[in-house]
Amino acid sequence: MTEITSQVLSTTSPDIAAESLELDAPKADEVLIDVAACGVCHTDLHVIKEEVNFPRPAVLGHEVSGVVVDVGDDVEHVKAGDRVVASFIMPCGSCRHCVDGLEEICEVFFENNRINGRLLDGTTRMHRPDGTDVAMYSMSGHSSRTVVPASGVFGLPDHVSLQDAAILGCSIFTAYGSVFETGRVVEGDTVAVVAAGGIGLSITHLAAAAGASRIFVIDLDDHKLALAKELGATDVINGREQDPLEVITTELGHGVDKVFEALGTQATVTQAVSLADDGGRVVLTGIAPPGHVLDTPIAHVVRRKIQIMGSYGATVSTAMPAVIELAAEGKVDMAQLITNRFTFDQTDAAYKALDAREIRGRGVISINPDLQ
């Protein structure tokens, strides 16, 4: 057992504060890592605001890079000293969904981790000094050191910055699943992205990498739209000032081939469906708070043969190597996607900034700035 410093979401306060916790050694098929950096994701904010049920006390943070300290039994693909990045989904590899190639909806991961705050064996590795269990959201990246199931840990090339690479494990990974696995964007496709937050900007960036011919990005914030332009958008639309459907149909004569919704509200999903061309595909990627439901004309969807599909992460074992390769080849500009950087003691402030829509692209917390 090791003493670590973590930023803890307590049972009595909506604020996150530093605490000294005790961390168990890695078990079989687990990896102990020193955390270099952790991304600031809206999904964690849903937990903080109690829009998603999750046990407390808890350590959040599910977008992590770092250096391996030790490995448990049966781990052979990484070793102590390796630079690594972790995916936020940590599949068991043996449930019915994993066997069918649907690792991103692994039943064991969702039951143990997303519902109960435990790792794949149903237990947590984090505890308060008095023995109180501390729930883990994915690998609990808001910690100086943590334990990650080996299925979610991947080696990182030496020339890729650890301080930037954290966003590969959720923001880019999730966008990869949306663009390449669910959306199946190919060269020449026309694309619309609704909401230019961290995920929406990553989708924009990867849609450009996939060869989309037109990429319309819709948001209410001109600063985010300007960044979308830098990341590959061909057209940006401020929804306060223009009607996105009118702009797109005027430009193309019809809707787009693929639409990506990246916020998760009733209004943005309804808008996303309206932008699809006949036979088009709408990919829902944003996580919605409870109570938000689909509200779209059924006849429109049926008559125009529109596909509405959910996309949660990606197939871990194949998508993470692909994402890392894109980063290694310079096809993903992580430094440009990261617009706000925070120190470890600014973790609570980072989520308050996210809630206030003050983070233009993706925020990253530097847990250990010495790890580069």
TrEMBL record:
<dbReference type="InterPro" id="IPR002328">
    <property type="entry name" value="ADH_Zn_CS"/>
</dbReference>
<feature type="domain" description="Enoyl reductase (ER)">
    <location>
        <begin position="11"/>
        <end position="365"/>
    </location>
</feature>
<dbReference type="InterPro" id="IPR011032">
    <property type="entry name" value="GroES-like_sf"/>
</dbReference>
<keyword id="KW-0862">Zinc</keyword>
<dbReference type="Pfam" id="PF08240">
    <property type="entry name" value="ADH_N"/>
</dbReference>
<keyword id="KW-0479">Metal-binding</keyword>
<dbReference type="InterPro" id="IPR013154">
    <property type="entry name" value="ADH-like_N"/>
</dbReference>
<protein>
    <submittedName>
        <fullName>Zinc-binding dehydrogenase</fullName>
    </submittedName>
</protein>
<comment type="similarity">
    <text>Belongs to the zinc-containing alcohol dehydrogenase family.</text>
</comment>
<dbReference type="InterPro" id="IPR013149">
    <property type="entry name" value="ADH-like_C"/>
</dbReference>
<dbReference type="Pfam" id="PF00107">
    <property type="entry name" value="ADH_zinc_N"/>
</dbReference>
<keyword id="KW-0560">Oxidoreductase</keyword>
<dbReference type="InterPro" id="IPR036291">
    <property type="entry name" value="NAD(P)-bd_dom_sf"/>
</dbReference>
<dbReference type="InterPro" id="IPR020843">
    <property type="entry name" value="ER"/>
</dbReference>
